[in-house]
Amino acid sequence: MPDISLNKPYRIGRSRTGLGLFATKPIKKGTKIIRYIGPLLDCNKEKDDAVENKYLFQITSRWTIDGSLRKNIARYINHSCKPNAESDVRKIKRRVDIRAIKDIAPGEEINYDYGTDYFKEYLKPIGCKCDSCEKKRKKLRAAAREEKKHSRARAEKRAGVEPTRKKLNGYKTHSAVPKKSKVLSTAKGGRSRKRS
What is the pLDDT of residues 45-61, one digit of tens each? Predict the structure, then answer.
């Protein structure tokens, strides 16, 4: 891993998606955090256009930064659908700075939105793993479990089976037993009626 000066407000650390960049000091909204560096590739040249890696940052339709160098610490910043930083692209100077768009607390991961092209090509096939998408998937899974539970209870009710009761200390209090219909006769030996 590249060496980072102690006066920098960030460090490289383990995140949910691999390595990430984390704040070590409070970073105020609007503050420049880091510059995305690397050799400039001219997309009009065949040899530069043939370069393929995950760290390419397109500045214009012609110029792209190859951020795969190990000294480019900004390459460790991960994608988020609800980011706390953004890329500030300066097309004329062919430079990219990462700026905070929210106050970032120490220990919080620094992230920005990679854009729709990158998202469609690299993230969508495997699923976005940012915190906001994980929370959304967790909520959807909980709703699906709840719906499955309700549909199972409705099906049991239609089938004439008593719904299963919750477990107490790992044991079911009652198991699903079909309802029995009782036949009662009147005291005078008259008609019988069915009760359920």
Answer: 888 888 888 888 989 98
pLDDT in tens, 143-181: 889 998 888 888 888 887 665 566 666 665 555 555 555
Confidence (pTM): 0.67
Task: Take residue 55 and report the two structure tokens written for it.
Answer: 């760290």
Beta strands 109-112 and 78-79 are parallel
Going by their DSSP bridges, the two strands 40-42 and 56-58 should be labelled as unpaired
Judged by DSSP in three states, 109 sits in strand
Write the single-letter amino acid at 165: R
Q: Minimal CA–CA distance to 73: which of 90, 43, 98?
A: 98
Q: Which of 154, 156, 155, 175 is nearest to 164 (CA)?
A: 175
Tokens of 157: 């009710």
CA distance 142 to 13: 30
Q: Contact 181/194 with Cβ under 8 angstroms?
A: yes
Residue corresponding to tokens 């998606």: 17
Q: Tell me the residue type at 175.
A: S
Task: Report all structural domains of the chain as residue ranges with CATH numbers, in order of start.
Answer: 10-129 (2.170.270.10)
